[in-house]
Amino acid sequence: MSVTEELLIEADRLAVELGHADPPTLLDVRWRLAGPPGRDDYAAGHLPGAVFVDLDTALCGPPGPAGRHPLPDPGALRAALRAAGVRAGRPVVVYDGGDGMAAARAWWTLRWAGHRPVRLLHGGFPAWQEAGLPTSTAVPTPAPGDVEVRPGALPVLDAAAAARLAAADDGVLLDVRAAPRYRGETEPIDPVAGHVPGAVNLPAPGYVAEGRFPAADALRARFAAVGVGDDRPVGAYCGSGVTAAQAVFALHLAGRPDAALYVGSWSEWVADPARPVATGPTPGG
Q1: What's 278's DSSP letter?
Q2: Is 238 a catalytic residue?
Q3: Residues with Cβ < 8 Å from 143, sequence gap 6 or more?
Q4: How far is residue 13's CA from residue 80's CA, in Å, rounded to a whole number?
Q5: Handedness of CA 277, 106, 40, 73 (dihedral sign)
Q6: Residue 236 host element (H or E)
Q7: Which of 253, 42, 259, 105 is nearest to 172 (CA)?
Q8: For strand 92-95 and strand 25-28, is the pairing parallel, antiparallel, or unpaired?
Q9: pTM across the whole model
Q10: What is the pLDDT of residues 53-111, one digit of tens each?
């Protein structure tokens, strides 16, 4: 199985696997930064057998000084995953509304917690619909899972480690927010505009388009253009660690499973006024 096949599954292939005697566990993680909750979308129609898991309350900790989407409490995460029927060693497929961000954060969280295998439905719920595959409004009652949560299976950056990586000559810290936010021209969510000094801007459309990922070679070329080489440590951050999880997912596709996520991201960085803030179009401002 290729790296891509270990991480992504197309709708038609998923439909086949769901017909097996022991199908993968399906998690619907549709989510919006602002607007109606994803649970409303789930109630209107979802993949048959899928269980809704809320990104904000089940897969992340409560917002605060550690950011708007901090790491979850391991015990709380284990309870949420077991309630969704996640079993040790059993494949999981996650999907969202199509942009791939919430699904990537769900993928990252399960992998960080030590669970494998986990795949992302390529193109999310819209891809399933476009393939003409059936949906359901029935809410399943899964048998309780037995998954264990063992934090640390994927690398994490805290604020100090993010600062060191951004300042290192041999490392790259990617800021994957829109360029005006990186440059400090606007900040629609957090109280301070700008970026971590030394971080390099690569807005999300540079490596994913409408939830669809290009081939591994194209991803490697795109990351290489901003300084990500095979032997340079790399991490990513965004506003609160959701879009950046998608960047880490893309880096895995490109052959960099060592890519680290700054989970707290900009929302944590600016929570401490002592941390430096850079502005302008180049690393460091």
Answers
A1: B
A2: yes
A3: 85
A4: 27
A5: negative
A6: strand 234-237
A7: 259
A8: parallel
A9: 0.97
A10: 999 999 999 999 999 999 999 999 999 999 999 999 999 999 999 999 999 999 999 99
- Buried/exposed code over 146-166 (b: 16+ C-beta within 10 A; e: otherwise): ebebeeeebebbebeebbebb
Q: Tokens 């801007």 map to which residue?
A: 201
Average pLDDT over the chain, rounded to an integer:
96
Catalytically annotated residue among 92, 238, 251, 271:
238
Closest CA to 120 of 253, 222, 19: 253
Q: Which residues pair with 236 in a beta bridge?
A: 174, 261
Helices and strands in the chain: count of H runs, count of E runs: 12, 10
Query: What's the full length of the chain, in residues?
Result: 285
The structure tokens listed for 166 are 């951004």
What does the block give as tokens for 148?
A: 């264990």
At 114-167, the pLDDT tens digits run 999 999 999 999 999 999 999 999 999 999 999 999 999 999 999 999 999 999
